[in-house]
From TrEMBL:
Cofactor: FAD
PANTHER family, A to Z: NITRITE REDUCTASE [NAD(P)H], PYRIDINE NUCLEOTIDE-DISULFIDE OXIDOREDUCTASE DOMAIN-CONTAINING
Family annotation (SUPFAM superfamilies): FAD/NAD(P)-binding domain
Keyword Oxidoreductase included in the entry's annotation: no
Domain of life of the organism encoding this protein: Bacteria
Alphabetic keyword roster: FAD, Flavoprotein
Domain FAD/NAD(P)-binding: 5-294
Protein name: Assimilatory nitrate reductase electron transfer subunit
Species whose genome carries this gene: Labedaea rhizosphaerae
Family annotation (InterPro entries): BFD-like_2Fe2S-bd_dom (IPR007419), BFD-like_2Fe2S-bd_dom_sf (IPR041854), FAD-bd_OxRdtase (IPR050260), FAD/NAD-bd_sf (IPR036188), FAD/NAD-binding_dom (IPR023753), FAD/NAD-linked_Rdtase_dimer_sf (IPR016156), Rubredoxin_C (IPR041575)
Keyword Flavoprotein appears in the UniProt entry: yes
GO MF annotation: an example: oxidoreductase activity
Protein backbone atom coordinates (compact mmCIF):
# COMPACT_ATOMS: atom_id res chain seq x y z
CA UNK A 1 0.00 0.00 0.00
CA UNK A 2 1.40 3.38 -1.04
CA UNK A 3 1.28 6.04 1.67
CA UNK A 4 -0.84 9.07 0.77
CA UNK A 5 1.14 12.29 0.65
CA UNK A 6 -0.31 14.80 3.11
CA UNK A 7 1.12 18.31 3.06
CA UNK A 8 0.28 20.57 6.01
CA UNK A 9 0.79 24.29 5.36
CA UNK A 10 1.64 25.80 8.72
CA UNK A 11 3.53 24.62 11.80
CA UNK A 12 1.63 26.53 14.44
CA UNK A 13 -0.58 24.98 17.10
CA UNK A 14 -3.12 23.59 14.61
CA UNK A 15 -0.60 22.23 12.10
CA UNK A 16 1.60 20.71 14.81
CA UNK A 17 -1.37 19.06 16.51
CA UNK A 18 -2.59 17.58 13.23
CA UNK A 19 0.86 16.12 12.49
CA UNK A 20 0.93 14.59 15.98
CA UNK A 21 -2.51 13.06 15.65
CA UNK A 22 -1.78 11.68 12.18
CA UNK A 23 1.28 9.91 13.54
CA UNK A 24 -0.63 8.66 16.59
CA UNK A 25 -2.95 6.85 14.21
CA UNK A 26 -0.21 5.76 11.80
CA UNK A 27 3.03 5.40 13.79
CA UNK A 28 5.03 3.55 11.13
CA UNK A 29 3.99 5.81 8.24
CA UNK A 30 2.41 3.10 6.09
CA UNK A 31 -0.83 5.03 5.55
CA UNK A 32 0.31 8.65 5.29
CA UNK A 33 3.55 10.44 4.46
CA UNK A 34 3.54 13.80 6.23
CA UNK A 35 5.21 17.01 5.10
CA UNK A 36 4.82 20.14 7.23
CA UNK A 37 5.63 23.57 5.78
CA UNK A 38 6.71 25.90 8.58
CA UNK A 39 5.75 29.56 8.52
CA UNK A 40 8.22 30.42 11.31
CA UNK A 41 11.80 29.25 11.67
CA UNK A 42 11.20 28.15 15.27
CA UNK A 43 9.86 24.74 16.29
CA UNK A 44 6.13 24.69 17.06
CA UNK A 45 5.21 26.50 20.27
CA UNK A 46 2.14 27.25 22.37
CA UNK A 47 0.97 30.67 21.26
CA UNK A 48 -1.61 30.74 24.06
CA UNK A 49 1.16 31.05 26.65
CA UNK A 50 2.90 34.03 25.04
CA UNK A 51 1.49 36.30 27.75
CA UNK A 52 3.47 34.27 30.33
CA UNK A 53 6.63 34.82 28.26
CA UNK A 54 5.86 38.53 28.07
CA UNK A 55 5.34 38.63 31.84
CA UNK A 56 8.64 36.83 32.41
CA UNK A 57 7.01 33.92 34.27
CA UNK A 58 7.86 31.40 31.52
CA UNK A 59 10.90 31.01 29.30
CA UNK A 60 10.57 30.63 25.54
CA UNK A 61 11.78 27.03 25.71
CA UNK A 62 9.04 26.20 28.22
CA UNK A 63 6.25 26.85 25.70
CA UNK A 64 7.69 24.73 22.89
CA UNK A 65 5.40 21.96 21.68
CA UNK A 66 8.17 19.95 20.00
CA UNK A 67 11.88 19.56 20.51
CA UNK A 68 14.43 19.99 17.71
CA UNK A 69 14.38 16.40 16.50
CA UNK A 70 10.65 15.71 16.92
CA UNK A 71 10.00 15.75 13.17
CA UNK A 72 12.82 13.31 12.41
CA UNK A 73 11.76 10.89 15.15
CA UNK A 74 8.18 10.86 13.91
CA UNK A 75 8.88 10.59 10.18
CA UNK A 76 7.66 14.11 9.45
CA UNK A 77 9.37 16.02 6.64
CA UNK A 78 9.72 19.59 7.92
CA UNK A 79 10.21 22.06 5.06
CA UNK A 80 10.24 25.87 4.52
CA UNK A 81 7.12 27.99 4.21
CA UNK A 82 4.71 27.75 1.28
CA UNK A 83 4.47 30.63 -1.17
CA UNK A 84 1.97 29.34 -3.77
CA UNK A 85 -0.41 26.47 -4.43
CA UNK A 86 -1.02 24.88 -7.84
CA UNK A 87 -4.22 22.89 -7.40
CA UNK A 88 -4.24 21.57 -10.96
CA UNK A 89 -0.76 20.06 -10.61
CA UNK A 90 -1.25 19.33 -6.90
CA UNK A 91 2.01 20.99 -5.95
CA UNK A 92 3.07 23.65 -3.46
CA UNK A 93 5.90 26.08 -4.17
CA UNK A 94 8.18 26.74 -1.18
CA UNK A 95 10.15 29.74 -0.03
CA UNK A 96 13.46 28.06 -0.92
CA UNK A 97 12.42 27.66 -4.58
CA UNK A 98 11.58 23.95 -4.35
CA UNK A 99 8.16 22.33 -4.74
CA UNK A 100 6.37 19.50 -2.97
CA UNK A 101 3.63 17.25 -4.38
CA UNK A 102 0.51 16.33 -2.47
CA UNK A 103 -2.42 13.96 -2.54
CA UNK A 104 -4.11 15.90 0.25
CA UNK A 105 -3.34 19.48 1.22
CA UNK A 106 -4.24 20.90 4.64
CA UNK A 107 -4.18 24.63 5.29
CA UNK A 108 -3.24 25.57 8.86
CA UNK A 109 -1.99 29.09 8.14
CA UNK A 110 -3.55 30.65 11.25
CA UNK A 111 -4.30 34.34 11.53
CA UNK A 112 -2.51 37.67 11.36
CA UNK A 113 -2.85 40.59 13.77
CA UNK A 114 -5.31 43.26 12.67
CA UNK A 115 -4.17 46.87 12.54
CA UNK A 116 -6.95 49.34 13.43
CA UNK A 117 -7.39 52.33 11.09
CA UNK A 118 -5.46 54.81 13.21
CA UNK A 119 -3.63 57.65 11.48
CA UNK A 120 0.13 57.04 11.43
CA UNK A 121 -0.10 53.58 12.99
CA UNK A 122 1.85 50.79 11.26
CA UNK A 123 3.56 47.63 12.48
CA UNK A 124 6.82 48.69 10.87
CA UNK A 125 6.69 52.09 12.59
CA UNK A 126 9.20 52.73 15.37
CA UNK A 127 7.51 52.34 18.74
CA UNK A 128 4.69 50.05 17.52
CA UNK A 129 4.56 46.29 18.05
CA UNK A 130 2.06 43.52 17.43
CA UNK A 131 1.46 40.79 20.01
CA UNK A 132 1.17 37.50 18.14
CA UNK A 133 4.48 35.62 17.95
CA UNK A 134 7.59 34.88 20.02
CA UNK A 135 9.45 37.40 17.87
CA UNK A 136 6.81 39.99 18.83
CA UNK A 137 7.32 39.16 22.52
CA UNK A 138 11.06 39.52 22.27
CA UNK A 139 10.68 42.81 20.41
CA UNK A 140 8.34 44.17 23.10
CA UNK A 141 10.57 43.02 25.97
CA UNK A 142 13.60 44.68 24.35
CA UNK A 143 11.71 47.95 23.90
CA UNK A 144 10.30 48.46 27.42
CA UNK A 145 11.76 49.32 30.78
CA UNK A 146 10.37 49.53 34.34
CA UNK A 147 8.56 52.83 34.83
CA UNK A 148 8.11 53.44 31.09
CA UNK A 149 4.63 54.33 29.81
CA UNK A 150 3.12 51.74 27.45
CA UNK A 151 -0.23 51.82 25.66
CA UNK A 152 -2.02 48.59 24.77
CA UNK A 153 -4.48 49.06 21.93
CA UNK A 154 -7.29 46.58 22.55
CA UNK A 155 -9.23 45.51 25.64
CA UNK A 156 -10.04 42.00 24.55
CA UNK A 157 -8.59 38.76 25.87
CA UNK A 158 -5.09 39.06 24.38
CA UNK A 159 -4.87 42.79 25.02
CA UNK A 160 -5.52 42.32 28.73
CA UNK A 161 -3.02 39.46 28.92
CA UNK A 162 -0.40 41.66 27.26
CA UNK A 163 -1.25 44.55 29.60
CA UNK A 164 -0.88 42.39 32.72
CA UNK A 165 2.40 40.97 31.49
CA UNK A 166 3.81 44.45 30.90
CA UNK A 167 2.54 45.70 34.25
CA UNK A 168 4.33 42.75 35.83
CA UNK A 169 7.54 44.09 34.28
CA UNK A 170 6.99 47.44 35.98
CA UNK A 171 5.63 49.34 32.99
CA UNK A 172 2.97 52.03 33.39
CA UNK A 173 0.25 50.48 31.24
CA UNK A 174 -2.83 52.11 29.78
CA UNK A 175 -5.34 49.99 27.85
CA UNK A 176 -7.15 51.90 25.11
CA UNK A 177 -10.39 50.23 24.01
CA UNK A 178 -13.01 51.70 21.65
CA UNK A 179 -15.90 49.87 23.33
CA UNK A 180 -17.42 50.96 26.64
CA UNK A 181 -16.42 47.79 28.52
CA UNK A 182 -13.69 45.16 28.42
CA UNK A 183 -13.93 41.80 26.63
CA UNK A 184 -17.33 42.65 25.16
CA UNK A 185 -17.43 39.38 23.21
CA UNK A 186 -17.32 37.34 26.43
CA UNK A 187 -18.42 39.60 29.31
CA UNK A 188 -21.50 41.62 30.14
CA UNK A 189 -20.96 45.20 31.40
CA UNK A 190 -21.32 44.24 35.07
CA UNK A 191 -18.66 41.55 34.87
CA UNK A 192 -16.39 43.85 32.87
CA UNK A 193 -16.63 46.57 35.53
CA UNK A 194 -15.52 44.13 38.23
CA UNK A 195 -12.66 42.90 36.04
CA UNK A 196 -11.52 46.47 35.38
CA UNK A 197 -11.49 47.15 39.12
CA UNK A 198 -9.38 44.04 39.74
CA UNK A 199 -6.89 44.98 37.04
CA UNK A 200 -6.71 48.61 38.15
CA UNK A 201 -5.57 47.32 41.55
CA UNK A 202 -2.69 45.66 39.69
CA UNK A 203 -1.57 48.98 38.20
CA UNK A 204 -3.36 49.01 34.83
CA UNK A 205 -5.28 52.08 33.69
CA UNK A 206 -8.12 52.09 31.18
CA UNK A 207 -9.48 54.47 28.56
CA UNK A 208 -12.76 52.89 27.49
CA UNK A 209 -15.17 54.07 24.81
CA UNK A 210 -12.52 56.35 23.32
CA UNK A 211 -11.05 55.05 20.03
CA UNK A 212 -7.49 55.94 19.10
CA UNK A 213 -7.40 58.53 16.32
CA UNK A 214 -3.71 59.19 15.70
CA UNK A 215 -0.35 57.70 16.53
CA UNK A 216 2.28 60.20 17.66
CA UNK A 217 5.71 58.54 17.20
CA UNK A 218 7.63 58.54 20.44
CA UNK A 219 4.79 60.25 22.27
CA UNK A 220 1.81 57.87 22.29
CA UNK A 221 -1.78 58.06 21.10
CA UNK A 222 -4.22 60.88 20.51
CA UNK A 223 -7.75 59.64 21.15
CA UNK A 224 -10.96 60.54 19.31
CA UNK A 225 -12.13 62.65 22.27
CA UNK A 226 -9.02 64.83 21.95
CA UNK A 227 -7.21 63.42 24.98
CA UNK A 228 -3.69 62.00 24.91
CA UNK A 229 -2.22 58.73 26.19
CA UNK A 230 1.57 58.98 26.60
CA UNK A 231 3.51 55.89 25.54
CA UNK A 232 7.07 54.97 24.64
CA UNK A 233 5.61 51.85 23.01
CA UNK A 234 2.18 51.02 21.56
CA UNK A 235 1.34 47.31 21.66
CA UNK A 236 -1.42 46.46 19.19
CA UNK A 237 -3.70 43.63 20.25
CA UNK A 238 -6.95 44.60 18.58
CA UNK A 239 -7.89 41.25 17.10
CA UNK A 240 -6.80 39.01 14.24
CA UNK A 241 -7.88 38.17 10.72
CA UNK A 242 -7.66 34.73 9.14
CA UNK A 243 -4.55 34.33 6.98
CA UNK A 244 -6.23 33.39 3.69
CA UNK A 245 -3.73 34.79 1.20
CA UNK A 246 -2.57 31.43 -0.16
CA UNK A 247 -6.13 30.11 -0.31
CA UNK A 248 -7.47 33.13 -2.17
CA UNK A 249 -4.59 33.08 -4.66
CA UNK A 250 -5.35 29.40 -5.30
CA UNK A 251 -9.02 30.18 -6.02
CA UNK A 252 -10.54 28.59 -2.92
CA UNK A 253 -13.79 29.95 -1.47
CA UNK A 254 -13.11 32.42 1.35
CA UNK A 255 -15.43 34.39 3.67
CA UNK A 256 -13.85 35.55 6.96
CA UNK A 257 -11.71 32.44 6.57
CA UNK A 258 -11.34 29.49 4.25
CA UNK A 259 -14.82 27.99 4.03
CA UNK A 260 -14.98 24.37 5.22
CA UNK A 261 -17.72 21.78 5.73
CA UNK A 262 -18.10 19.26 8.56
CA UNK A 263 -15.34 17.12 7.02
CA UNK A 264 -13.16 20.28 7.02
CA UNK A 265 -13.04 20.21 3.21
CA UNK A 266 -12.68 23.46 1.31
CA UNK A 267 -14.29 24.16 -2.06
CA UNK A 268 -11.62 21.80 -3.45
CA UNK A 269 -12.25 18.36 -1.89
CA UNK A 270 -8.51 17.57 -1.96
CA UNK A 271 -7.79 20.61 0.20
CA UNK A 272 -8.77 20.87 3.86
CA UNK A 273 -8.34 23.66 6.41
CA UNK A 274 -8.40 23.90 10.20
CA UNK A 275 -7.65 26.33 12.98
CA UNK A 276 -7.81 30.11 12.80
CA UNK A 277 -7.58 30.22 9.00
CA UNK A 278 -10.73 28.10 8.58
CA UNK A 279 -14.33 29.29 8.76
CA UNK A 280 -16.78 26.69 10.02
CA UNK A 281 -20.26 27.73 11.19
CA UNK A 282 -19.78 25.99 14.55
CA UNK A 283 -16.46 27.63 15.38
CA UNK A 284 -15.42 30.72 17.33
CA UNK A 285 -12.10 32.00 16.02
CA UNK A 286 -9.06 32.72 18.18
CA UNK A 287 -9.43 29.78 20.58
CA UNK A 288 -7.25 26.68 20.70
CA UNK A 289 -10.00 24.17 21.50
CA UNK A 290 -11.69 24.25 18.05
CA UNK A 291 -8.34 23.78 16.28
CA UNK A 292 -7.49 20.73 18.35
CA UNK A 293 -10.96 19.24 18.02
CA UNK A 294 -10.65 19.72 14.26
CA UNK A 295 -7.23 18.04 14.27
CA UNK A 296 -8.77 14.92 15.84
CA UNK A 297 -11.49 14.74 13.20
CA UNK A 298 -9.13 15.38 10.31
CA UNK A 299 -6.59 12.82 11.53
CA UNK A 300 -9.38 10.21 11.70
CA UNK A 301 -10.48 11.04 8.17
CA UNK A 302 -7.10 11.27 6.48
CA UNK A 303 -5.81 8.01 7.95
CA UNK A 304 -9.09 6.21 7.35
CA UNK A 305 -9.36 5.26 11.02
CA UNK A 306 -12.88 6.68 11.28
CA UNK A 307 -14.34 7.66 7.89
CA UNK A 308 -17.57 8.86 9.50
CA UNK A 309 -15.78 11.44 11.67
CA UNK A 310 -17.25 14.93 11.36
CA UNK A 311 -16.63 18.26 13.08
CA UNK A 312 -19.83 19.75 14.51
CA UNK A 313 -18.39 22.68 16.41
CA UNK A 314 -16.73 23.15 19.80
CA UNK A 315 -18.18 24.30 23.13
CA UNK A 316 -16.80 27.78 23.80
CA UNK A 317 -14.87 28.28 27.04
CA UNK A 318 -12.66 31.36 27.30
CA UNK A 319 -10.14 31.77 30.11
CA UNK A 320 -8.14 34.89 30.89
CA UNK A 321 -4.55 33.89 31.60
CA UNK A 322 -3.57 36.69 33.95
CA UNK A 323 -1.72 36.29 37.22
CA UNK A 324 -4.01 36.97 40.16
CA UNK A 325 -7.22 36.79 38.10
CA UNK A 326 -9.39 33.69 37.71
CA UNK A 327 -11.89 34.32 34.90
CA UNK A 328 -13.84 31.86 32.77
CA UNK A 329 -16.60 32.71 30.30
CA UNK A 330 -18.49 30.01 28.45
CA UNK A 331 -21.39 29.51 26.06
CA UNK A 332 -24.11 32.13 25.67
CA UNK A 333 -22.96 34.12 28.70
CA UNK A 334 -24.34 37.40 27.35
CA UNK A 335 -27.95 36.23 27.67
CA UNK A 336 -30.02 38.97 29.34
CA UNK A 337 -31.62 38.36 32.74
CA UNK A 338 -34.98 39.24 31.20
CA UNK A 339 -34.81 36.51 28.55
CA UNK A 340 -38.08 34.57 29.05
CA UNK A 341 -36.59 31.33 27.70
CA UNK A 342 -33.63 31.23 30.08
CA UNK A 343 -32.96 31.01 33.79
CA UNK A 344 -30.32 33.62 34.58
CA UNK A 345 -28.72 34.10 38.00
CA UNK A 346 -26.12 36.71 38.94
CA UNK A 347 -24.01 37.36 42.02
CA UNK A 348 -21.66 40.32 42.24
CA UNK A 349 -19.09 41.23 44.89
CA UNK A 350 -16.97 44.06 43.42
CA UNK A 351 -15.14 44.78 46.67
CA UNK A 352 -13.63 41.30 46.57
CA UNK A 353 -13.28 41.10 42.80
CA UNK A 354 -15.95 38.44 42.35
CA UNK A 355 -18.74 38.07 39.83
CA UNK A 356 -20.77 35.01 38.92
CA UNK A 357 -23.45 34.63 36.26
CA UNK A 358 -25.16 31.40 35.32
CA UNK A 359 -27.42 30.82 32.31
CA UNK A 360 -29.56 27.67 32.14
CA UNK A 361 -32.05 26.38 29.61
CA UNK A 362 -34.09 23.24 30.25
CA UNK A 363 -32.07 22.72 33.46
CA UNK A 364 -28.76 22.61 31.51
CA UNK A 365 -25.91 25.12 31.73
CA UNK A 366 -25.71 27.03 28.45
CA UNK A 367 -23.58 29.95 29.58
CA UNK A 368 -21.66 31.41 32.50
CA UNK A 369 -19.23 34.09 33.61
CA UNK A 370 -17.12 33.20 36.66
CA UNK A 371 -14.68 35.82 37.97
CA UNK A 372 -12.87 35.10 41.22
CA UNK A 373 -14.82 31.86 41.68
CA UNK A 374 -12.51 28.98 40.70
CA UNK A 375 -14.47 26.22 42.47
CA UNK A 376 -17.71 27.27 40.81
CA UNK A 377 -15.94 27.60 37.47
CA UNK A 378 -14.61 24.03 37.63
CA UNK A 379 -18.02 22.57 38.45
CA UNK A 380 -20.03 24.67 36.00
CA UNK A 381 -17.59 24.00 33.16
CA UNK A 382 -17.92 20.28 33.82
CA UNK A 383 -21.73 20.54 33.66
CA UNK A 384 -21.49 22.58 30.46
CA UNK A 385 -19.14 20.12 28.78
CA UNK A 386 -21.22 17.07 29.65
CA UNK A 387 -24.66 18.61 29.16
CA UNK A 388 -25.83 17.06 32.42
CA UNK A 389 -28.61 18.59 34.57
CA UNK A 390 -27.55 21.28 37.03
CA UNK A 391 -28.04 20.74 40.79
CA UNK A 392 -31.32 22.09 42.14
CA UNK A 393 -29.48 24.38 44.57
CA UNK A 394 -28.38 27.06 42.11
CA UNK A 395 -26.96 29.30 44.82
CA UNK A 396 -24.67 26.54 46.10
CA UNK A 397 -23.56 25.98 42.51
CA UNK A 398 -22.69 29.65 41.99
CA UNK A 399 -20.82 29.72 45.28
CA UNK A 400 -18.79 26.67 44.32
CA UNK A 401 -20.28 24.51 47.04
CA UNK A 402 -22.06 21.89 44.94
CA UNK A 403 -21.19 19.24 42.39
CA UNK A 404 -23.51 17.34 40.04
CA UNK A 405 -25.80 15.09 42.04
CA UNK A 406 -25.46 17.27 45.15
CA UNK A 407 -22.01 15.98 46.13
CA UNK A 408 -19.62 18.18 48.03
CA UNK A 409 -16.83 19.99 46.22
CA UNK A 410 -13.61 18.00 46.06
CA UNK A 411 -11.19 19.52 48.56
CA UNK A 412 -8.10 17.65 47.31
CA UNK A 413 -6.95 15.62 44.29
CA UNK A 414 -7.76 12.46 46.26
CA UNK A 415 -11.44 13.48 46.38
CA UNK A 416 -11.60 14.39 42.68
CA UNK A 417 -13.59 11.80 40.68
CA UNK A 418 -11.51 9.69 38.28
CA UNK A 419 -13.73 10.86 35.41
CA UNK A 420 -13.19 14.57 36.16
CA UNK A 421 -11.64 16.47 33.27
CA UNK A 422 -8.44 18.15 34.43
CA UNK A 423 -7.19 19.53 31.11
CA UNK A 424 -10.11 20.58 28.97
CA UNK A 425 -7.97 21.56 25.98
CA UNK A 426 -6.63 18.02 25.63
CA UNK A 427 -9.53 16.09 27.20
CA UNK A 428 -7.27 14.70 29.94
CA UNK A 429 -9.05 13.20 32.95
CA UNK A 430 -7.70 12.50 36.41
CA UNK A 431 -7.80 8.80 35.52
CA UNK A 432 -5.56 9.43 32.48
CA UNK A 433 -3.02 11.22 34.66
CA UNK A 434 -3.03 8.38 37.19
CA UNK A 435 -2.59 5.84 34.39
CA UNK A 436 0.35 7.82 32.96
CA UNK A 437 1.91 8.03 36.43
CA UNK A 438 1.70 4.29 36.93
CA UNK A 439 3.23 3.80 33.47
CA UNK A 440 6.34 5.73 34.51
CA UNK A 441 5.54 9.46 34.24
CA UNK A 442 6.76 10.12 37.78
CA UNK A 443 6.76 13.93 37.89
CA UNK A 444 4.86 16.90 36.49
CA UNK A 445 6.96 17.15 33.35
CA UNK A 446 6.49 13.44 32.73
CA UNK A 447 2.72 13.75 33.09
CA UNK A 448 2.72 16.67 30.67
CA UNK A 449 4.77 14.75 28.09
CA UNK A 450 2.59 11.65 28.40
CA UNK A 451 -0.84 13.31 28.35
CA UNK A 452 -0.30 16.86 26.96
CA UNK A 453 -2.13 18.20 30.02
CA UNK A 454 -1.50 21.94 30.57
CA UNK A 455 -0.07 22.44 27.05
CA UNK A 456 -3.22 24.20 25.84
CA UNK A 457 -4.37 27.31 27.68
CA UNK A 458 -2.19 26.41 30.67
CA UNK A 459 -4.85 27.13 33.31
CA UNK A 460 -4.86 23.53 34.60
CA UNK A 461 -1.15 23.55 35.48
CA UNK A 462 -1.77 23.99 39.22
CA UNK A 463 -4.24 21.09 39.22
CA UNK A 464 -1.76 18.84 37.40
CA UNK A 465 0.91 19.80 39.94
CA UNK A 466 -1.52 19.03 42.79
CA UNK A 467 -2.30 15.59 41.35
CA UNK A 468 1.44 14.90 40.93
CA UNK A 469 2.07 15.86 44.58
CA UNK A 470 -0.82 13.65 45.70
CA UNK A 471 0.47 10.71 43.65
CA UNK A 472 3.98 11.20 45.00
CA UNK A 473 2.64 10.84 48.52
CA UNK A 474 0.12 8.10 47.76
CA UNK A 475 2.21 5.98 45.39
CA UNK A 476 5.86 6.82 46.03
CA UNK A 477 7.08 3.72 44.18
Amino acid sequence: MTARRIVVVGYGMAGARLAERLRDRDPDGTRVAITVLAGEERPAYNRVLLSAVLAGSMAVDAIRLHDDDWAERHRVDLRPAAVAIDRAARTVALADGSTVDYDVLVLATGARPWLPPVEGLAFDEQGVAAFRTIDDCERIIAAVAPGAPVAVLGGGLLGLEAARGLAGRGCLVTVVHPVGHLMERQLDPAAARVLATVLEAQGIEFRLGAPAARYLPGDGLKLADGSHVPADLVVVSAGVRADTGLAEAAGLAVDRGVLVDDALRTSDPRVHALGDCAHHPGTVSGLVQPAWDQAEVLADLLTGVRPAARYRGSPVVTRLKVRGVDLAALGDALTDVHDPDAEVLCLTDPARGRYAKLVLRADRVTGAILLGAPDAAATITQLYDRGTPAPADRLALLLGRALPGGAAVASSPADLPATATVCRCNSVTKAALVTAWRAGASDVDGLVRATKASTGCGTCRDTVCGIADWLTAAEPN
